[in-house]
Amino acid sequence: MGRLIILTGAPNAGKTTVAGLLKAQCARLAVIEVDDLRACIAWMPLAEAVPLNLINACDVANNFLAHGLDVLFVYPLSDADFTFIRPRFEPDQEILSVALWCAPDVNAESRGSRVLSGWERERIRWMHGEGMARPRFAQLVDTTDISAQAAADTVKRICALASAAE
Q: Which domain of life does the protein's organism represent (predicted)?
């Protein structure tokens, strides 16, 4: 059975960039960007779409896990979201959780090639204010002053991910 690795954090903390690096550098790793499932039901209000997206992502993850792959589940999960998804996996399923955290003032700035909208900046501030940027279920990796590659290397170490070359 593969391992489930949750990569969470506020928008603009580096989740997608780090996930892309891990996908390119790690062996037998399936990456599920939960936001990609949102595009299937873009017409649905966000509050309705989130639970459905999480359920669908869990179903896809379980399929990959059943085939012995490690799964990187990428989404800004709250503690309540984690409680919602946990029963959707086998009780003995190994779950490793890492939260990419970035200082709020830096997190709300455009970083790299990403230009943040006003809505995204407000969501980042809200997530920090609500504690979602530092979920209790995850080990933190501070991305404020490190490169995406350094963050990916830290996640690889924490989760003992094998390099594709190994």
A: Bacteria
- Say yes or no to pLDDT of 107 above 90: yes
**Nearest by Cα to 21 from 96, 110, 100, 103:** 100
DSSP string for residues in 111-143 = -TT----HHHHHHHHHHHHHTTTS-TTSEEEE-
CATH number at residue 111: 3.40.50.300
Question: What is the residue-averaged pLDDT of the chain?
Answer: 95
Give the C-alpha separation, 166 to 158, whole Å: 17
Count: domains in the chain: 1
Is there a domain that residue 166 lies in?
A: no
pLDDT range class, residue 166, cuts 50, 70, 90: low
For residue 147, is it within any domain?
A: yes
| pLDDT for residue 118 | 94
What predicted TM-score, i.e. pTM, was given to this entire model? 0.95
Range 77-95 average pLDDT: 97
Q: Which amino acid is at 133?
A: A
